[in-house]
Amino acid sequence: MPTQILMPALSPTMTEGNLAKWLVAEGDTIESGDVIAEIETDKATMEVEAVDDGVIGKILVAEGSENVPVNDVIAILVEDGEDSAVIPSPSETRINSVEKSKISPQSVRDDNKENLEATNRDILYAQGVIFEPPAFDEASFTETINQSVRDALRDAMSEEMRADDRVYLMGEEVAEYQGAYKVSQGMLDEFGARRVIDTPITEHGFAGMAVGSAMNGLKPIVEFMTWNFGMQAIDHIINSAAKTLYMAGGQLGCPIVFRGANGAASRVGAQHSQCFASWYAHVPGLKVVAPWSGADAKGLLKAAIRDPNPIIFLENELLYGEKFDVPVSDDFEIPIGRAKIERAGADVTIVAFSIMVGKALKVAQELAEQGIDAEVINLRTIRPLDRYTILESVKKTNRIVSVEEGWAFAGIGAEIAALCGEHAFDYMDAPLVRVCGADVPMPYAANLENLALPKPKDIINAVRKVCYVD
Amino acid sequence: MSPPKSKKKTAVKKTGQPSLEELRKLYYEMLMIRRFEEKSGQLYGMGLIGGFCHLYIGQEAVVTGINSVQKPQDTVVTSYRDHAHMLACGMDANGIMAELTGRIDGYSRGKGGSMHMFSREKGFFGGNGIVGAGVAIGAGLGFGHKYSGDGGVAIAYMGDGASNQGQVGECYNMAALWDLPVLFVIENNQYAMGTSATRHAAGQLYRRGEGYGIPGEQVDGMDVFAVQTAAKQALDYARSGNGPYILEVMTYRYRGHSMSDPAKYRTKEEVSTMKEDRDPIANVKNMLQERGIDEAELKVVDKEIKAIVAEAAKFAQESPEPSEHELWTDILVESV
User: Fold this and answer.
1) What is d(CA A338, CA B190) in angstroms, rounded to the nearest whole number?
2) Would you call B137 and A240 a contact, using CB atoms and an 8 Å cutoff?
3) What's phi and psi for B176, nearest 5 deg?
4) pTM value > 0.80
5) Which residues are within 8 A (CB) of A405 and not within 5 positions of it... i.e. 6 or more apart?
6) Helix (H, G, I), strand (E, B) or coil at B14
7) Do A100 and A189 belong to one domain?
C-alpha cells in the first residue's frame, strides 16, 4: 500500500513551511532514518527523515515551494514494484488529525473517575465554590497541658513517628544539636539516627531527596532552619512536590511536610525576615498551614504529617517559647482548611494568622474598651483558605480588616479582599483595609524594623477606619 | 571494600560470548526504542504530539544495557529525554504514545505529556522537565531503598548538561555521606542542548565524585555490552552497601535536542560518522549476522516491532482527549 509522506510540523508553533530541497528523487530506495528533504521553518532549516522503508513513488510538492501547509502530502512512498499512478491531489488528501480526533465518536466514554460528581472538597475549592469547612469539635479535647509551641511541635512529630515508621525528620541541626531552635529536642535519642537525620547545608539537594523518598513510600518531615533558606529548595517544593500528582494523572503523589520558622524574628535583617505565606499559597497542589497557638501547632502538624499531600508548615520563631494549653490526646488533629474564631464579635472582623493572631486578640480587648466589638479569626490554614468562615463573619459584622506580617502586594489580605468583593459585596459597609508589613526589604536598625512591621496601633487605626469612627 | 579509583573505559571482560538469546533480546529492545522514537517524530510532524519532544535515537544502548542488569526492586528516574527509559522498564507502548498525544489512555491521563510519565508498578519515577531535579529525586529514591531495606538501587539518569547543576554535587555529597544505593548515570551525548561538553564542563564528568569518595567510570555508550558490563559491576557495588557509583556513558543523539532543533552546532560529518561507524543497533545486528541469523529473520523482527509501534500510534490517535472534568482532578490526593 502506498504511504503518504506529509509536510511535517517541526516546532510547537509551525503551521506551514518552505520545502527547500529534496535530497531524494522519484525511484530512489530509502530506509527509515534517511534524510529525504530540507524544510525551512520560521526559525531554521531542518532535515526531514524517512519513517518508513520503500521507494519514492512520486514527489508531489516541488523543491522551492513556499508556505506548504503542515500535513499536506508532499510525496508518496511505495513498496518495490507498486504502482503510484493513481495519486490524489494534495488538497484532497490533507489530513488534519487533531480536528479529526476532536470529533471522534469515542470522545465520550464511560469512566468512573470522569463521571465523578464534583462533590469533592478539593475540586470545589479549586473551582472557587464556597462550602462549609470540615467539622471539628475542638471543645471535646478537655485534657490539656500548658506547654510551649516548641514542645507542642516536638510532641506532634514524636507521636506521629511512634505511630508510623515511614515518618522521618530531616534537616540542618535537627539531630545532635537538638534543633537550631530546639524544636526536635530529644528526638534523636528516642528515634535514632535512621529517622532523625542531620543534613549538610544543602537545602536544594535534601529537599529534592526528601521528595524522592516520599515518592518511594516514605513520609518525610523536612525542617528548614528558616523558610528564608527554603527558597534554595523552592523548585523541588513546587515543580517536584506540588505538581507530580497532577502530572502523573493521580498515580503518584508526594506525602511530605516542609516546616520551619517563617517571617521576621528580631533584628536579623532583610535576608532572614520574610513571610512566605502568599508565595506558597499561590500554588495549586500545596496546602499551606500557619499555626499561632500551641494547640494550633500540635493539632495542625499532626494533621499535616497524616495528610497524603505536600504541606507547607509556617512556624514563627518568636512564638516557639510562648506557652499555651495544649490538648494531650494522640487523636488531637485539627482539620486543615478550617479557620477558628478566637473571639466572637459583632462590629468588625479581624482576620489574621500566625503571630498576628495574638496581636489581633490584644487589640480586640483594647477596642472593646473603645466600644468596638471585634471578631478575631485565626486562619490556621492559608490554603485551602476557609472562605466560608470569613464570609459568614463579614456578612455578620459588615466590616473587615486583614492583618499579616508580609508585604501587601498580592498578599493574603489581597486575596481576602477579593473574596469579600466577589462574594460579600452587598454586605460590606466599608472596603477591606489591609494591615501589612511595609513594602521594603526588612531593615536592621531597631527603629526602622519596628516601623516596617505591623503594630497594634496599625490594627486599631484600620479597624477605626472601616468602622468610620474617626 | 575500599572504593575503586575512577577509571576510564571498562575493559570488557570477554568472559565468553553473549548468548544468542541475549543478543536477540538486546537487539529487539534497542530497535523497539528507535522505531518508537521515529514514530513519535512522525506524529509530532503531523501535529498530533505538541510542545516539546526529545528523541533518544542514537542513545539506545545506554538504557538498554543498564536495564538488562537491573533487579525488579530497582527504581529509575531520568530527565525529559525519557521515552526509552519507560519502554526499557516495561511500560506499555500504547500508554506512552497516548500520553504523547495527550489522550485519556496515556500514563498520566493526558495531563503530563512527553516529560511527565510515571509508573510506580514498574519503578519508574519520571521524566522530569527541570534539568538536574531528577538527580535529587533519584538520590531520594535511594534513601528510600536504604531506609526500608528492600535491597533496591536507585538509578538516576542525567545528561552531561545536568551534571553541572549544583544539586547534583549536593546529592553526590549526601549519597556518599550516607552510603545510599544510587547509580548515577551521566548520559554524555556531548551536547547540553547546543553547547558542546568541551564548552560547558571542566574536567571529566566521571571523576566529579572523587572528592566525595564516589568511584566513577567512563564507558562506551555505543556498545551495549560495555554498558551492560559496567552497569552490572556498578549496581553490585551500590547494592552491597558501598554507597553510590557514577557511570559516565559516552553516547550520541542523532537528532536535535528537541524536535525544533536543527542542530547546526555540529557538523554533518560528525553525525554521519557516528551513524555509520558506531551505531549501537547496527553493531548488534552485525553480531547477530555473524552468528548466522540471516536478513530474512531480522526483517521479521523489524516487522513485528513496526506493527507494535503502528498499533501504539493508532491507539494514541483513537484514544479520546481527557474529559473536561479531568482539569479539576488530581490536584491533591482527595480529602473527600
Assistant:
1) 53
2) yes
3) -75, -45
4) yes
5) A263, A264, A275, A354, A355, A356, A436, A437, A453, A454
6) coil
7) no
Query: Could you say which residues from 272 to 311 on chain B have a Cβ atom under 8 Å away from some Cβ of chain A?
Result: 275
Q: Are B104 and A70 within 8 A, CB to CB?
A: no
- Neighbour tally for A253: CB within 10 Å: 21
Domain of A454?
A: 340-466
Over the Cα atoms of chain A, what is R_g?
Answer: 30
Return left, alpha or beta for B242; rule: phi > 0 is left, psi -120 to 50 is alpha, else beta.
alpha
* Sign of the four-CA dihedral A376, A378, A382, A387: negative
Is A132 within a domain? no
For residues A363 and A386, membership in a common domain is answered with yes
pLDDT tens for residues B163-201?
999 999 999 999 999 999 999 999 999 999 999 999 999
CATH code, domain carrying A96: 2.40.50.100
Asked if the structure places residue A127 within a domain, the reply is no
For the segment B220-275, what is each residue's pLDDT rounded down to a tens digit? Answer: 999 999 999 999 999 999 999 999 999 999 999 999 999 888 888 999 999 999 99
Instruction: Please report residues of B whose CB lies closer than 8 A to that of A248.
Output: 107-108, 112, 116-118, 126, 330
Nearest CA in chain A to B168: A205
Does a structural domain hold residue A39? yes
Q: What is the DSSP letter of A42?
A: S
Q: What are the structural domains of chain B?
A: 58-89+125-302 (3.40.50.970)
- For residue A274, the 8-state DSSP code is B
Within the 204-223 window of chain A, which residues sit less than 8 Å (CB to CB) from chain B? Answer: 204-218
Tell me whether residue A272 is one of the annotated catalytic residues: yes
Inter-chain touch B111–A204, beta carbons under 8 Å: no
Average pLDDT, chain A: 91
**Cell representation of residue A30:** 530509502
Could you report the per-residue pLDDT of B270-314, keeping only the tens digit for each?
Answer: 999 999 999 999 999 999 999 999 999 999 999 999 999 999 999
Q: Is residue A131 part of a domain?
A: no
